[in-house]
Amino acid sequence: MGKRPTDRMPDTSFRVMELLFVIADLIYPHVRRRARSFDIQEGMIVVDYGCGPGRYTTEFARIVGESGKVYAIDIHELAIEAVRKKIAKRGIHKVEALLAHGYNCGLPDAVADVVCAIDMFFGVREPIVFLEELKRITNADGLLVIDDGHQSRAKTKEKLLASGCWRIIEENRDHLKCKMV
Asked: Is 132 inside a domain boundary?
């Protein structure tokens, strides 16, 4: 089976995270509210990069409607399996779950209107390579929505700006919105 990317979490950790998300979403269901603040519109193509078990993927699919599309991308096979099960159970046909190989997600250039990297950027070991891949798949007018996850805002901004790929156009306590440089 080839070498796994070093950013990939162990299977047991993934399963624990998935369970914790289910519990957290029952106690504090904020995904819908949060997703609405990402400037996603009906008909858009959205990439949920680092989709995990698909918490945001299905909400993005609801927002883009029948005329849009969502790509759920992750480096973890269990994430792709979880998303595929979730979309099959809900009868969602406008989501495509894809396994990334390292930092290569396999999407064509300039495909995305919005790329969301939610609660995962802190774990990326090669942020410049990662951010270059996000730029490659984002169209010229596209938007990157990224949050800090488990790192400081200063660290997130430092990584973004060091890449030379993105400029921050909006910042709130929840996330950053960026455009290509």
From this structure: yes
- Model pLDDT for residues 34-56, shown as the tens digit of each residue: 999 999 999 999 999 999 999 99
pTM for this predicted structure: 0.87
Residues of the domain holding 68: 11-180
CA 169 – CA 126 distance, rounded (Å): 23
Residues, the chain, total? 181
Q: Note the Cα 110 to chain centre separation in Å.
A: 16
What is the residue-averaged pLDDT of the chain?
A: 91
* pLDDT over 80 (residue 25): no
According to DSSP, the β-strands at 95-99 and 69-74 are parallel
Output the domain CATH number for residue 92: 3.40.50.150
6-32 in b/e form (b: 16+ CB < 10 A) is ebbbeeeebeebbeebeeeeeeeeebe
Number of domains observed in the structure of the chain: 1
Strand partners, 179: 167
How far CA 50 is from CA of 27, 46, 70, 99, 178, in Å, comes to 23, 13, 13, 10, 17
